[in-house]
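User: Some background: our group keeps a shared notebook of sequences we're curious about, and every so often someone picks one and asks for a predicted structure to add to the entry. Today it's my turn. The entry only has the sequence so far, pasted here. Could you supply the structure so I can complete it?
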Amino acid sequence: MSFERLGLEPGLLRAVRDLGYADPTPIQQQAVPIALQGRDILGCAQTGTGKTAAFVLPALQRIAEHADGEPGPNGKGSQRRRSPAALVVTPTRELAGQIEEVARACAKYEGQRVAAVYGGVGYDPQLSKLRKGVDLLVATPGRLLDLQQRGEADLSGVRVLVLDEADRMLDMGFWPDVRRILRLLPDERQNMLFSATLSRDVLRVAGPTLHDPATVEVAPSATPVEAVTQTIYPVAELQKIDLLIKLLEEEKPSRALVFTRTRHRADRVCRHLKRNRIEGAAIHSDRTQAQRQRALDGFKNGSYRVLVATDIVARGIDVDQISHVINYDLPSQPHDYVHRIGRTARAGASGTAISLLAGEQAEEFRQIERLLEQRLPCKDLEGFSYLQRHLPYPERKTAKPKPRLVYNGSARRRR
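Assistant: Of course. Here's the predicted structure to add to the notebook entry:
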């Protein structure tokens, strides 16, 4: 199916060609025609499936078709709006910025104004954009409510609402804020909710939000990308950093995304990488927006071969050509394992997912295997001197600990 057959306006088709999109992805094929009809949508799609364009393109066309007032100087969709006609709510700053980038590129021939508002940066540039008028607004929940309470964000004219990454907004505790936003919107509107999983919790919150929705799902929510090679490396907790460095040296990833459990561990891993002359950067919620953007830009342009991230921000990282995903720590929720490894093997490429398994996370490992309904292969790195460690399967023999040098402050001794 071509983009022309989806029913898009010529200006949007021209923008799609400029973006280099050849054919619509499965989620775009399913969602765009339904959204253009004005129906509510419950969509299940992970990052990297073309989901953003699947809701941005029909939202832009819908608000252009129902534009009020006189056209502005740039065309039919450029009226000065005190209230945006389309609102996209997303959980992280990174996602908001990426959606704004895609929406702005899609809107350039139709004349709609696009802006994003999110925390971690100053108010003035965002206020300036809102006061000039916005057609499509991308926002994180907290900053949007803050601006609304200040009288700077009028939501009374929203005709199209998109809730992106609904499961992540639930996990991050944003849903009370989302409900407050919903109360500020007109009752008559089109709603689109997208989630990487259609869990029971997502379906519970979708019920009151959507009206007779069409469900579009491009893949089962718990199925990882088939092109990803998954390997588990059992290792003692205190040897994790040494094994990670050895794996990076052996695997030589072109671009590796490393997940840690906490912000402190992300920083510690990054420090060890730099000591071993491995270019990397950490990205987590304690970093300023400018620091996070520099790390993400460096990862995209190749300045950093490794990006160390926590789950709370990693959902907003949309980077192509990630060759390796490495779970320094396994996630506490098994579905997050699927989200993580789905960052590699995109656009038809193959990818590698490596997980370091310490005994403390044996239960998380069992939950992941139950979710995937398969036993993940375990492996040892040849030449690495393992200490006593937990092995997930009794038939595997524990590697015999070898002596290793330990520095005690004044002398070196073997243990």
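Suggested note for the entry: The radius of gyration is 23 Å. The longest strand covers residues 228-234.
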